[in-house]
Amino acid sequence: TSPMEYLTRWRMLLACDRLKNTRDSVALIANAMGYESESAFGKAFKRVMGYSPRQHR
């Protein structure tokens, strides 16, 4: 696992927590995780987690 992969996985775990425990929008969470768009975040989330942010919620 590269440092970048580790960081991305860590960000997604933080995002999972926020998706489950807050009513923040996916766009707001994406921005907080350092993504410029909800779309880029959604693609990265699905690549790492295997499902979409909305499915996690």
UniProtKB/TrEMBL annotation:
<dbReference type="InterPro" id="IPR020449">
    <property type="entry name" value="Tscrpt_reg_AraC-type_HTH"/>
</dbReference>
<protein>
    <submittedName>
        <fullName>Putative AraC family transcriptional regulator</fullName>
    </submittedName>
</protein>
<dbReference type="InterPro" id="IPR018060">
    <property type="entry name" value="HTH_AraC"/>
</dbReference>
<dbReference type="InterPro" id="IPR009057">
    <property type="entry name" value="Homeodomain-like_sf"/>
</dbReference>
<feature type="domain" description="HTH araC/xylS-type">
    <location>
        <begin position="1"/>
        <end position="57"/>
    </location>
</feature>
<keyword id="KW-0804">Transcription</keyword>
<dbReference type="GO" id="GO:0003700">
    <property type="term" value="F:DNA-binding transcription factor activity"/>
</dbReference>
<keyword id="KW-0238">DNA-binding</keyword>
<dbReference type="GO" id="GO:0043565">
    <property type="term" value="F:sequence-specific DNA binding"/>
</dbReference>
<dbReference type="Pfam" id="PF12833">
    <property type="entry name" value="HTH_18"/>
</dbReference>
<keyword id="KW-0805">Transcription regulation</keyword>
